[in-house]
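[step 3/7] fold_predict: job queued, chain A
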Amino acid sequence: MTEKVSSIGLKGLEGYRVQVEVRISPGTESMVIVGLPDASVKESRERVLAALSVFDVDVTDQKVVVNLSPSEEKKNGPLFDLAIAIAALKELNVIKGKTPIENAFIGALSLDGTVVKAEGMLPALLSAKRLGLKRVYLPYDPSIPINMLEDLACIVVHHIEEVVQHLEGQESLSFFPTLPFEDQVPLFMELPQKDFCHVIGHESAKRALEIAAAGEHNVLMSGPPGCGKSMMAETIPSILPPLTNQAQLEVLSLYQLAGEKRMSPQTIPYRHPHHSASSVAIIGGSTPKPGEISLAHRGVLFLDEIAELTKKTLDMLRQPLETGEVTISRAHSTVTYPSSFILIGAMNPCPCGYLGSNLHYCTCSQKQIQTYRNRLSGPVYDRIDILLSLKSVNLDKPAERLESSIEIRRRVEKARKLQYQRYQTEISNAKIPFEIINETSPLTADQKAMIMKVAAKQNWSNRVQIKMIRLARTISDLAGEEEITDTSIWEAMTLRRWGLHKQQSMARET
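[step 4/7] structure written:
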């Protein structure tokens, strides 16, 4: 007779149900695992056989065959250890009761039968919930917010004996494990965020970043060294709305798959890779694991010195910026990870950095300046919503009242709520399909003519014109307007035209 139990396999962030079948029959002593297992799954043989010895069962002169179905999907990781052991114990009649089909088992085993955590448990739990499973047995992992997983009973176990006893109805296990007093330390710690009230000057830039945060628009900042580009980029997370429960679980899942630590589930993701990072590190690893663009999902990806990144890496950003996800194809697998983020780029206006500066003389030739800017291809520029040119500010100048990030965030949250109500889902103006914006906020004939006239002068592509409409919709949301106003369209076009115009005029002056 063959015994079957359920587990969860992972393909990237997406999970699928794995039927673990075990058959034990007389024969040459061996244990065979089939169903496209990788090396870590094949090593389950020794761990499972050692854990079975806890129950004094004899598998000498027995042939153990384990089938992981569906057979066409490659299985990886030690998450199947517990499920294989439970199926084997059922086959050996140690577990006499029936295991409901809606139960699943995930977790690795140590040699003494202890159930230990493994990589990818949170994505597996989310997939179990999506697949309609009702109960999951799993090891304790403090980084998994079990209380956020609704409609899924997570039974935490420490040893395989506890699982057997619970299946036999002999012991009641806690859904929320209690820790000894000395172990009750906060897992996550909030770091203090930078605040916009610390940014002196740059009022136009701060207004542009508020618009970017309200609609999740991409920004490219250009300015001399030390003018405040990095500081303003680091401050953007402080004005973004808090993550929803679903967003927190998505982000935690990606960080678990990448083996990265999170400071807190509520913290807005902010990634700041060095400009020497490889394209594999930015897009995704060779395993493949989530890269920087996926770790920035639901948050901010700041690329300082963006022109110093290789052209190949920059061009690889085109698909994620357009679709909000990245597909990584490797020889042994193809996976898709979410990567919906706000891109903030920063660069110098020229190779020496001082084009247009009042304090330093620019030593770059026109050809050097043009070659430097051409490192960002036209398609990448097209995917940038806002172009900003910054200059150094005089710190001795009396500052006006500086708004705090809390005040700005209130306006951003209000604008986001208007967008969510309009689209009936949690999606922003920059990410919603343009057809829906056209249906919900149609432009007048005069407004279309206005955009087309300016686009013809500026040589804007259709993509840039659509981005102007998206920007105008966000500006109108910040103003509480139901329709896109003429004023918002002019401001949107200024945000796109202003930075480019100033750089071109500076280049002509040199």
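[step 5/7] annotate
The radius of gyration is 28 Å.
Residues 176-189, 498-510 have pLDDT under 50 and may be disordered.
exit 0
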